[in-house]
Q: What sequence folds into this?
């Protein structure tokens, strides 16, 4: 499980770096709602930096929205990172696996996103910089593979960076 998460983080990091132009003076690249701000070192303050150093997702048990100890550690790292990078907001996307009705999963995804957002607020991130949205089961993260692993990967809250407006 940890190896698969590390592989996902590595792929996201590689994708973010490839999406940036070769001139790294201070460009911002938007891909699927995420912002990547590239500095001279190519990483500091970027979406890739966020993913590599804080992690962008927390996972949940079936039919639950409570924050586990692993999720709490990730959200503390995210809070620290966001406090150091005050020029960025975060949108937390709540997702669910395919079981249950659409309406139920929208509500569950909302509770998951709100739980993660509440933890970031407790870590000192101003509520004005946090937005939540639920996709329920409408935007699956994983669609193929071992069914229990697909379910697990879709029970998630993902933090997506956005510029401060």
A:
């Amino acid at each position: 499980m940890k190896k698969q998460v590390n592989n996902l983080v590595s792929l996201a990091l590689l994708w973010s770096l490839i999406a940036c132009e070769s001139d790294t003076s201070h460009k911002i690249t938007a891909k699927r709602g995420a912002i990547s701000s590239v500095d001279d070192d190519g990483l500091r303050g970027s979406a890739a930096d966020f993913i590599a150093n804080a992690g962008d997702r927390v996972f949940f048990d079936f039919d639950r929205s409570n924050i586990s100890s692993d999720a709490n550690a990730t959200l503390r790292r995210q809070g620290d990172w966001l406090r150091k990078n005050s020029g960025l907001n975060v949108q937390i996307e709540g997702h669910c696996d395919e079981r249950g009705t659409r309406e139920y999963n929208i509500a569950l995804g909302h509770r998951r996103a709100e739980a993660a957002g509440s933890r970031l607020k407790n870590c000192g991130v101003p509520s004005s910089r946090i937005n939540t949205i639920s996709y329920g089961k409408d935007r699956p993260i994983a669609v193929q593979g071992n069914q229990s692993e697909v379910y697990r990967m879709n029970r998630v809250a993902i933090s997506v960076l956005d510029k401060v407006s």
Summary: Helices lie at 2-19, 47-53, 69-84, 102-122, 147-154. The first helix runs from residue 2 to 19.
